[in-house]
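Module 6 notes. Inverse folding takes a fixed backbone as the condition and produces residue identities as the prediction. Think of it as a translation problem where the source language is geometry and the target language is the twenty amino acids. Below is one complete input and output pair. Work through it position by position during the lab.
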């Protein structure tokens, strides 16, 4: 199948392009901002790019147009697609139907820290021999790409709350149907599409509603907004972190290492950790707890943290 992606140079849509290419599709795309590092990454995977959104791209005659959320009504290529009644779908919907279905999806949601925590979780599963597929909003050290498709049943995804597309104003993460999800934090953001914090909390609760009873929510106990979300109704077990009664990271030693505690009791220790700050230790704790749900032994997960070296480069999120 030939897929033409509108807005292909955003982090998410660029990742979709890599996954589609790995799945055997012919992939082309267009964007108003065709430049490195995303243009370089796509070029390395033989994905042809077109600068701009002129309607002449219909001459490519793809089987399907995949539309990113950067594309609004009035865009000349989108208007031509609609006028001719051509087949199109949003990026998250295409991903859910063609890549994520049937997999154990581990999603990482939150106002901030998503990229780092997604990379941490992916690295833990990688070091555990689970060979995960992933889509992350940056290029993690040790991988060299922002998205990868493998034969593993596990797929780790940065679960963004921004809207899906011009035709679907739900948050992107609604489509992913994760079995394991990290709710890292929840603050007011994206004032261009959300009226207030309550509107974002509603989207997060829509996500909670998609989780199965045999899933797991790993939630930040320090966020009252997340407690409000879960108080609306929850049908999935919850492991809290970053609070006195749940999982927490101890104070770091000189090498950045720290103890992992549950309700104050030491469960294991990270000998060294390259990322500074209490927020990154909390990110690491969340990643370890999520990885345990996927069957990774605690000791293996903690050792993986010791070799994690961070994000090589971050990409524009779209």
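Target side of the pair, the amino acids:
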């Amino acid at each position: 199948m030939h897929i033409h992606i509108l807005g292909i140079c955003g982090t998410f849509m660029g990742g979709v392009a890599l996954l589609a290419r790995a799945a055997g599709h012919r992939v082309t795309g267009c964007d108003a901002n065709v430049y490195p590092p995303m243009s370089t990454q796509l070029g390395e995977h033989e994905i042809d790019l077109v600068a701009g959104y002129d309607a002449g791209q219909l001459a490519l005659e793809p089987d399907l147009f995949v539309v990113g959320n950067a594309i609004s009504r009035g865009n000349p290529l989108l208007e031509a697609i609609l006028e001719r009644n051509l087949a199109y779908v949003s990026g998250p919907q295409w991903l859910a139907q063609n890549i994520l279905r049937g997999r154990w999806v581990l999603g990482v949601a939150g106002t901030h820290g998503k990229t780092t925590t997604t990379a941490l979780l992916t690295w833990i599963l990688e070091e555990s021999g689970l060979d995960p597929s992933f889509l992350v909003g940056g290029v993690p050290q040790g991988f060299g790409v922002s998205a990868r498709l493998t034969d593993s049943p596990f797929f780790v995804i940065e679960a963004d709350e921004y809207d899906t597309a011009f035709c679907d104003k739900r948050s992107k993460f609604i489509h992913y149907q994760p079995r394991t999800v990290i709710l890292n934090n929840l603050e007011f953001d994206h004032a261009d599409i959300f009226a207030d914090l309550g509107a974002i909390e509603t989207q997060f609760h829509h996500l909670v509603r998609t989780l199965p009873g045999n899933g797991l929510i790993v939630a930040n106990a320090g966020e009252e907004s997340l407690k409000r979300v879960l108080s609306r109704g929850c049908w999935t077990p919850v492991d809290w972190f970053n609070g006195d009664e749940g999982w927490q990271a101890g104070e770091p030693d000189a090498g950045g290492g720290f103890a992992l505690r549950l309700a104050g009791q030491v469960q294991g220790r990270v000998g060294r950790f390259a990322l500074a700050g209490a927020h990154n230790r909390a990110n690491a704790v969340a990643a370890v707890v999520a990885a345990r749900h996927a069957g990774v032994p605690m000791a293996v997960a903690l050792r993986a943290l010791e070799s994690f070296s961070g994000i090589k480069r971050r990409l524009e999120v779209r």
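Reference fact for the lab report: Residues 278-293 form the longest helix (16 residues).
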